[in-house]
Structure formats: C-alpha cells, structure tokens
TrEMBL record:
NCBIfam families: HAD-SF-IA-v1 (TIGR01549). This is HAD-IA family hydrolase. It holds the Pfam family HAD_2. The keyword Hydrolase applies. InterPro entries: HAD-like_sf (IPR036412), HAD-SF_hydro_IA (IPR006439), HAD_2 (IPR041492), HAD_sf (IPR023214), S-2-haloacid_dehalogenase (IPR051540).
Length: 269
C-alpha cells in the first residue's frame, strides 16, 4: 500500500463557510460597494462625470452580464472572470474605464463577497496535523475573482502559507471538473495522481474532477444546520458520476486517509 503523499482541498464550503442567507444579498452588498467606489476617484486618478447610476440599475446590469457570461462559459467549463463581468456591467450603464480603474473597482466589489467567509473551526488543526505527518498540501478553487485579490484574502484567513500549490480557476481560465486544474496542482506538488486525494463538497466539480484525474476523492457533507446554503453556480442537479472513495462530515476524518494509503472502494457516511 503506497503512502498518501498529498491532499488537496476545495475552499468554499470545505475550508470556509458562507454564513449569509442568499447570494442575492451578497450581490447587493457588492454592487453597493462598487457604486461607492465609482463615486470616488478611480485607481487611475480619474473621476466619473456626474453621479454613479443607482444601485438598482447597476444590479440589474450586473445580473444581465452574469447570465450572458454563464451561458457562454459554463457549457465549456470556462471560468467567468469577474473582471469581464464587471466591465460588461459598467458598459451597460454607459461607463467605460481603464484596466487600472477596473482592477480597483473589482477589489471594491469583491470586498463584501470575501468578508463573509469564515474558516471552519477544525481547519487549522487538520492542516497542522497533515503537514506534521509530511503530507504535501494544495488548494484548487473555482473562484471568479482575480488571483491577486484571492491570494491576499487567503493569506488573511491563514489559508495561503500551509499550501505548496494554489490553483485558481480565475488564473487558469477553466473551472472544475476540468482535469487541467488537477493536473496543474499535481505537477506543482510533484506527486502522482494515485498518491493524492482531493477533498471537496461538490460532487459535480470535486468528485468527478478528482476521479477523472486519477486521484482519490473525499466528499464533505457537513451536518445540516438549517441555514440556506447559497451556491453561486446554482448547481443542484442530481449527481450520477463516479462515487467518492470516502464521505465525511468533518475534516478531521480526512486524517484517516493518511493511514489508509491508496484509494480504496467507495465509502459511506
């Protein structure tokens, strides 16, 4: 039985939770922050002439842009980058800005979206034990926010330093379950697929992607706390892909795969 050399993790609803009632609420807060930023000098030193559009008008333009980009990108597993969506949003309301200004506006828009994230309580303990056991750690995240902003945020949460590999869909241009994201992470870690596990909460993106790459797959199904679990993708379709090797309710159960070694038959709860 080969030793487990690496364990890679999803981020959202795996390492961090989103204690908010809906993504609609988050969108409204983000658009409010965007509007506030438009009322100030932009990152390139320019200012808009006149007052920014209303929050409702910006929100409507944003939602339309999201729908347009989702229709074009999702079927091909392409990432819908926030910069592109925001550029289209602003163009819809008659605002065109420089790339430098747009980067600053994305940072303002992203701040409320990232501020809601809370690291699950067992994460620090689990990562420390895995690292202490010599297991190499990596992250693969579907996230449409630009990489520098995401990496700064992960660092603030204490979720950057423990990981030797951080693969973000916004930087690769593809989303899980596309195999390339998993292959990039494995290459960065220098481990073979059969020596690595992937831990995530979404069977469509995480289990299917990991299994296609030849990795072991751990599905996280945390206990239902009665709180609505917002999903930006809205992907609640039945899953009929390859089953996970293990299903867990707490990340502490991941420690068992270090002893288990290679990928075994699909496990239960």
């Amino acid at each position: 039985m080969r030793r487990t050399c690496a364990i890679l993790f999803d981020v959202g609803d795996t390492l961090v939770g989103f204690p908010v009632p809906s993504w609609e609420e988050v969108d409204r807060a983000s658009i409010g922050a965007l509007r506030d930023a438009l009322a100030r000098p932009l990152a390139d030193g320019t200012r808009l002439s006149g007052s920014p559009p209303s929050q409702d008008r910006l929100l409507e333009a944003f939602e339309q842009a999201v729908r347009e980009y989702q229709a074009r990108t999702a079927p091909r597993l392409l990432e819908m980058r926030a910069l592109d969506v925001l550029r289209r949003t602003l163009h819809r309301v008659g605002i065109d800005v420089s790339e430098a200004a747009l980067n600053g506006l994305e940072r303002a828009w992203a701040t409320p979206r990232l501020a809601i994230r809370r690291v699950f309580p067992e994460v620090g303990e689990v990562l420390a034990q895995l690292s202490g056991a010599g297991v190499r750690l990596g992250l693969i995240s579907n996230i449409w926010i630009s990489g520098p902003i995401v990496r700064e945020h992960l660092d603030v949460l204490g979720l950057l330093r423990p990981f030797e590999s951080v693969v973000l869909s916004s930087e690769v241009g593809l989303i899980k379950p596309h195999r390339l994201l998993f292959d990039v992470a494995l290459s960065q870690l220098g481990v073979a697929p059969g020596e690595a596990w992937y831990v995530g909460d979404n069977p469509h993106a995480d289990v299917a992607g990991a299994k296609a790459a030849g990795m072991g797959a751990v599905l996280v199904q945390r206990p239902d706390d009665g709180r609505p679990r917002p999903s930006p993708s809205g992907d609640f379709a039945p899953y009929d892909g390859p089953p996970p090797d293990l299903v867990i309710r707490d990340l502490r159960e991941v420690l068992a795969v270090v002893e288990r070694g290679t990928h075994g038959p699909a496990g239960g709860r």
